[in-house]
């Protein structure tokens, strides 16, 4: 279980997930395969923040959940600190669970309404049997303080807090076991703009302090820009572009990435540039493989796209003729 | 590091639930009546002058209600008021005990069915179906005849027909909460399903459990009264309203008090518990109110 | 849909089978047979012979299978308490009173309940509503034998308008029918009221009003149709429940129906009759639930025509 030296904190290889949904038409029920994630490979190095962006339905949340094995992949591999955890059973997986934690978007349903904040933050210690009860309680209160809440909050309940405060509690709970990887699934999407900034700063501080690796899933590009080192853009279950953050924002190559960037609202009218906003149809015609529907319908023949290197560390999905 | 934040305490959901309950006049009155009945049952020996089986007034048998005998005297010379009050003891004890057992059976079955779904759910639903198609009274009669009545058996029988409601309520609640993120967070920590059910799902099901408990009480009481009415419930001389109604029917034309009082007592008690339970349900979770 | 029906059929069949085994075992677990009573003590040798003649000495599972084989042929055996006829004959004799009174009860109670519920919904939060709701709650919570008792006390004993018991003349039917009618009436009053309130609050009703439709037309053509679904599906089980006779009502009003015979069959250990009664009633409930499930699936446009999502 000792981590291989210099192994990335988290590595996803060729992950796929297909959901089979029943469809009722009249008195018959047929089944429909929804390929949520198709062949996604990502590497999250140690002490780095990787952003995973895409629109709703792009498969980014599912990818994050698979990385945590909260959703089982249909195929592919998940490696944590160099060890393949894809098929481990519950008992073997438990020690690895300490290394990966998650923060969700909906902070309200992420905290058990019947427990006090102290109990919520201490729960990971409780599940993994770390320390005595009073030690656990002390650690929990210390962490509450660390994320910016007064220690007296330990005896309060989730419903008494605002969204931003609840997210802090969720972060405290996620980090109390000192994981190597934190999967943050849209943690700021439900928060006001000013609170967003606070949470982002909190995450940056904690990351620097703990050498944490964060997989930051979001659809909000402006947030991603201020936080991440590298960005992977997902569309329709596939990674279409993968590059260092600034490269994405200044030198995006994939038409989908470009349309995402163009969609970011610019407040100052004088600074608004002309948009190269592409509609789905235009997107499809400019990149032929996108025209082949979701790849879940009948596949029209043609070359499959591959990732092509176009710069340092900069990969784009394109058709290699 | 961001500044340390504090905020004033807010009102808990329980406070609002209490407000809702208090607004429901019928439920509040019912609760009051229920409290009086329970007190009467507990302090029965203190408020009655003789024991319930003491045939102390044979010479005044079948006497009508008067200042000496508030509810009159029954056919075997027993003070009827005493009998009715002790009957409350029997009914309420059986009601609460049976409801408690119903809850004990219903919670684990409902939790397992709701959490695991699939085959476990199917089995539990088949069990529920089993207990739903057999008319409870007929089956209860059969079981009653099997065991010759008796206090504890009646409690068990009543529990066997009350658990279904509790199970369904818990199952619905567990299913609803299973998808919530805090359950996923616990799973992400490597918690076992057993831990999650015990520590997270069941505590969050407290309100349906309470509602199920309180609503199971009148059902159990009615079942006991029915069985006693037919002669296979609580054996005499232990007083039971159902039994007294049966006797009362024979004397009904001339001695109305033997029929009226047990009937009224049963009706009021069942009504009070049901209205109180309904009020509790509406207060704790207005969304539980269904068709 | 076909798959749904077959699935339900299979599961109901399974339930019924399990119930039959359990009931059979329970009955035979009661110590003592039909000849152990004290009114006609017989010597052990005679008892053994009598038991053998009725096949009561065979191992339980053999008895069970031979009984069920008979059931499939509609042969339920001969009731111990009245050996001159078959169980089926006895039931045929005993059921009509229950069916008549119970059926009348439902057929009168349900429409009255619907009207009551409609009135309550339309005059929401007025005295009409409160009265109707109180009445519905009372009808459902007060046990039926308590209601019967009160009816007898008031109308037969005190006012002496109708006889309190007996089976012969129609005016002795009045009280039992009223007693039977309370549950359907209360149930339907509740259902109708809540269903109508649900629908009346929906936006499409406001649209209809804005279009200028008369209130009456809105209610009858649109609101009722939408509210009808749960009421239709609950009818069949309720009818079965009432039409098989209530033990109490029959005991109190001395009606010679199914309920009365059930009580006597338990007292006399009349296995064939007991078994047949429970099985038949259970079977009817199973079928009632099956039919109403199917009816529901059929009538609910969402299930019938699919969600429209692909």
Sequence-ordered SSE layout with sheet pairings:
The complex is a heterotrimer of chains A (321), B (291) and C (310).
Chain A: E1 10-25, E2 28-44, E3 49-53, H1 60-67, E4 75-80, E5 83-84, H2 90-97, E6 100-103, H3 117-127, H4 133-146, H5 163-175, E7 181-185, H6 193-210, E8 213-218, H7 221-227, E9 230-235, E10 238-244, H8 245-250, H9 255-262, H10 280-286, E11 306-311, E12 314-318
Parallel strand pairs in A: 3-8, 3-9, 6-7, 7-8
Antiparallel strand pairs in A: 1-2, 1-4, 4-5, 9-10, 10-12, 11-12
Helix pairs in contact in A: 3-4, 3-5, 4-5, 5-6
Chain B: H1 13-23, H2 25-42, H3 44-47, H4 80-116, H5 118-133, H6 136-147, H7 151-178, H8 181-188, H9 193-201, H10 206-229, H11 241-251, H12 257-284
Helix pairs in contact in B: 1-12, 2-4, 2-12, 4-5, 4-7, 4-10, 6-7, 7-10, 10-11, 10-12, 11-12
Chain C: H1 2-29, H2 44-53, H3 60-72, H4 87-122, H5 127-141, H6 144-158, H7 174-200, H8 203-211, H9 215-243, H10 247-253, H11 258-267, H12 271-299, H13 301-304
Helix pairs in contact in C: 1-12, 4-5, 4-7, 4-9, 5-7, 6-7, 6-10, 7-9, 9-12, 10-11, 11-12
Give the assembly state of these chains. heterotrimer
Largest protein interface, residues of each chain? B-C, 40 and 49 residues
Give the structural class of chain B.
mainly alpha
Strand content of chain B: under 5%
The global form of chain B is: elongated
Mean pLDDT of chain B: 81
Taking Cα atoms only, what radius of gyration of chain B do you get, to the nearest Å? 23 Å
Number of strands of chain A: 12
List the helices and strands of chain B in order: HHHHHHHHHHHH
| Count of DSSP strands of chain B | 0
Strand content of chain A: 25-35%
**Could you spell the SSE succession of chain A in H and E letters?**
EEEHEEHEHHHEHEHEEHHHEE
Largest sheet entry of chain A: 8 strands, mixed
Q: Tell me, what's the shape of chain A?
A: globular
Give the terminus-to-terminus CA distance of chain B: 53 Å
Distance linking N and C termini of chain A = 44 Å
Annotation field: number of helices of chain B: 12
The strand line-up of the biggest sheet of chain A is: 6-7-8-3-9-10-12-11
CA radius of gyration of chain A is 21 Å
Helix content of chain B: over 70%
Mean pLDDT across all amino acids of chain A: 82
